[in-house]
């Protein structure tokens, strides 16, 4: 019999992602309401499929249009994996700088979760000369921040080296959101 079904019949809790979200809903320090739980579950479904495939599609398009980037990436990958018998693991892939720079630049230019970061202001704030009162619901546009010419040099140009050479402003590059509720797919 399926372990999940057996646990439910025995009244045991399931130690899965949905259970963790439901537990967070009951956290008195930082509760989630039903609508936020609903949004998170939808995001997990989307993030696990469409965002990855779309990001990789845009990455391949950029690689085909930028032969120098393509050649440099191929060289780095051949150095990292000299044998075709070696299956890349997560730790190895994290330590390949140019690959990560190419992926980060792809996510900067083609942000898949571009609807922005939703938050509720916890105190009165003056932003751009306007008073935004406490409890106001806002959306910070991560896609606009990722193409802001005051932050990024040549923001409309694919330049993967920027993620190797420049200090990347954490508040202008948030493809996985930020804070305690950032995307679990970040790593």
UniProtKB/TrEMBL annotation:
Cofactor(s) listed in the protein's UniProt record: heme
Pfam family, one: p450
GO molecular function: heme binding; iron ion binding; monooxygenase activity; oxidoreductase activity, acting on paired donors, with incorporation or reduction of molecular oxygen
Positions contributing to heme binding: 183
Record keywords: Heme, Iron, Metal-binding, Monooxygenase, Oxidoreductase
Annotated family: Belongs to the cytochrome P450 family.
PANTHER family: CYTOCHROME P450, CYTOCHROME P450 12A4, MITOCHONDRIAL-RELATED
Protein name: Cytochrome P450
Organism: Jimgerdemannia flammicorona
